[in-house]
Specification:
Helix content: 40-55%
Number of domains: 3
Largest sheet: 8 strands, mixed
Structural class: alpha+beta
Strand order of the largest sheet: 3-9-8-7-4-5-6-10
CATH superfamily of the largest domain: Endonuclease Chain A
Number of helices: 14
CATH architecture of the largest domain: 2-Layer Sandwich
CATH class of the largest domain: Alpha Beta
Order of helices and strands: HHHEEHEHEHEHEEEEHEHHHHHH
Shape: elongated
Oligomer: single chain
Length: 360
């Protein structure tokens, strides 16, 4: 069994002085001679130790040269000692940042290293987003998901696309909750944005030219903490993260008017009234084969692709109907028809079969 460490070593008392102090507290008023004999010390050594405890406020002594040393009430004396120690600890803590800064400067390499900084102010985060759009010359990659610190309808993207920058955006279901967001995504697709939808994204992310990245540190809608980094290893990891989700996303279909897909082809006037060369039975057989081939080979319409993509993203029926400009009842009817045609009983099966057919 080891001895317990000295109680008052932080106050500057070694083990012998602490035992003298405890002896005086137990005995009461004690002379230098008593302390020296008790602990087998030279008179000068015992006197020096008692004076040190007096300086700490642990002991008191009368005015005469031969006065005894008496203990001060530990409730006050030791509290005063701990208060002084706490003050010293606080001063040490206050010096840590300045000393750390001096250490970083003294150990920093001579060459410049990529900078990574934390940005917390919402306006500063928004300014960095705009700055990276201006900065991009080749490629702009985006994880688009709420919460937003800038307007969802970003006018600068069209300018960036006009410069020939490749812009790829990944959206989540939450991206299309705001009114008009689906129309905006399709407008940007017409202008050249490549877009896909995934059910969820872990962070908000922007990568410009694989040289600078802006990535969120909080998604609670209260704080806007983010980091801006030019660290190439970190940017490479973030780029891999983007490609991982991109490979699993569903392409946003072009929802421009496709009336030509649905309108019947105009009949050749020369063919009107001319009987089929195969006769009635042959025509019926040919129609049946054609119908079967059409069922196997047909492509999904723009509306069907939009419904399937938004369903796969996890967006609720009411939100999908609102974005596509139809009633929830009409959406449920069209979804049911698609599920029947795809042989699916749930969203997962519908998405898998639609992907197999190349519809999404």
């Amino acid at each position: 069994m080891t001895d317990a460490p000295p109680l008052l070593d932080l106050a500057g008392l070694d083990g012998v002085s602490e035992r003298i102090y405890l002896f005086v507290v137990h005995r009461g008023a004690t002379s230098v001679v008593d302390a020296a004999e008790r602990f087998e010390l030279e008179f000068a050594d015992a006197h020096s130790r008692l004076e040190a405890m007096r300086d700490l406020g642990l002991l008191s002594r009368g005015l005469s040269d031969d006065a005894d040393y008496a203990p001060v009430d530990p409730r006050y004396a030791l509290s005063a000692v701990t208060d002084r120690l706490s003050d010293r600890i606080t001063r040490i803590r206050e010096r840590i940042p300045a000393l750390a800064d001096q250490f970083d400067r003294s150990t920093a390499p001579d060459t410049e290293t990529p900078e990574t900084r934390v940005v917390s102010d919402p306006d500063a985060v928004a300014n960095w987003y705009v700055r990276l759009q201006h900065q991009a010359t080749r490629e702009f990659l985006v994880f688009d998901r709420p919460p937003y610190v800038t307007s969802r309808l970003e006018p600068l993207e069209a300018v960036v696309l006009d410069r020939g920058v490749s812009w790829r955006a990944l959206y989540t279901a939450g991206s299309f909750e705001p009114e008009g967001s689906w129309e905006e995504a399709n407008r940007l697709a017409i202008q050249g944005e490549q877009a896909r939808i995934v059910p969820a994204l872990p962070v908000k992310l922007v990568i410009a030219d694989r040289s600078t990245a802006l990535v969120s540190l909080s998604l609670d809608g209260v704080r806007s903490d983010a980091i801006v980094t030019e660290s190439q290893p970190l940017i490479a990891a973030l780029h891999d993260l983007f490609e991982f989700y991109w490979a699993r996303g569903h392409a946003i279909p072009d929802s421009r008017d496709r009336a030509e897909e649905l309108a019947p082809a105009a009949a050749d006037p020369a063919e009107i009234g001319r009987p089929s060369s195969g006769g009635p039975s042959a025509a019926g057989s040919s129609a049946a084969v054609t119908s079967l081939e059409d069922e196997r080979m047909r492509s999904a319409t723009g509306e069907e692709k939009a419904i399937l993509a938004l369903i796969a993203s996890g967006l609720k029926d009411e939100s999908i109907a609102r974005q596509l400009g139809m009633s929830p009842r009409s959406l449920r009817r069209r979804s049911h028809e698609l599920f029947v045609e795809l042989g699916a009983t749930n969203r997962f099966q519908a998405g898998a079969e639609a992907a197999r057919r190349g519809w999404v």
